[in-house]
Amino acid sequence: MEKAVAAREILLLGALEEARAAALAAGVELVPLKGAALLELGLFQPGERGMTDADVLLRPRDLELFEKVLAGLGYSPMPDSADAWVRPGGEDAPPAILDVHTGLWHIKNTEELFSWGLEPGPSGLSLGLPDLFIHAAAHPLLHHGELTPRALEDCARLAAAAPGNGEKFWGTVARKAAVYGVRAVIWPAVKRLAAGTGSVPAQYLAELEPRGPEKIKAALFEKAAQKHSTTLEYLLPALQRPSLLVRYAVPEKRFMLRRYGAASLLLYALRPLKLVWSILRR
Fold it and tell me: Where are the domains of the chain?
């Protein structure tokens, strides 16, 4: 265990708990994602995983109110970030950073998760293990164009935490993957987990395997899982959800203000060129 890493994670979990309590008092529900969720559920102990911020999810309609809550707690928008809020630490303490999400790229309607995807957690509402697994498997490929060892370890620990023999867990993962349309996205993680631990029951492994046109998408996600590609980093999200291509090229005004400090017509015109340049220079 790294003491500095453990201290950082304990600080972030404390910041998350404070923000969640203040949000709840204002009538806003939020749930932890990624490392914050896994640490809170006890799947990792502080110092085992490592994280630089705490990711939280809330309904899009609650964003403006939650940002006021954060401002009241001493947070301010983090420079050069569209979603993160930061609060300076003490003399020798690192800053507290909360990364605020109103949606997940693998699911079209965030409200669905708040309607039937949440469960009581140790410190408040939490995504169920199947949804956390799908997010852990999909997020690195959709956001970063790669499948990291840490993401695979997250998936393995979530599967190992499933109650009983895991039948109910994998059955729910398979059903939700079909509903969300993400079999091709999570297949690289699922097949590696099956090959490594053999923990995926054959019935559900077959249900999770891409079929028909999904196989073409799955091949591209597998290529990214084997080796990071800048081109695929930008292509895969648009391949999964074509509407994201428009959001890339013409972001909301809020994004432009947070990322560039302005939302002029010139900046909007230059945005597609910036994306092309980002792909070519890496």
Answer: 1-105, 128-243, 250-282
Q: Domain spanning 1-105: which CATH class is it, in words?
A: alpha beta
| pTM score | 0.88
Q: Which range has the worst mean pLDDT, 21-25, 33-37, 188-192, 227-231?
A: 227-231
Q: What is the pLDDT of residues 225-252, one digit of tens each?
A: 999 988 888 889 988 988 766 666 666 7
Q: What is the 3-state secondary structure (H, E, C) of the chain?
A: CCHHHHHHHHHHHHHHHHHHHHHHHCCCCEEEEHHHHHHHCCCCCCCCCCCCCEEEEECHHHHHHHHHHHHHCCCEECCCCCCEEEECCCCCCCCEEEEEECCECCECCHHHHHHHCEEECCCCEEECHHHHHHHHHHHHHHHHCCCCHHHHHHHHHHHHCCCCCCHHHHHHHHHHHHHHCCHHHHHHHHHHHHHHHCCCCHHHHHHHCCCCCHHHHHHHHHHHHHCCCHHHHHHHHHHHCCHHHHHHHCCCHHHHHHHHCCCCHHHHHHHHHHHHHHHHCC
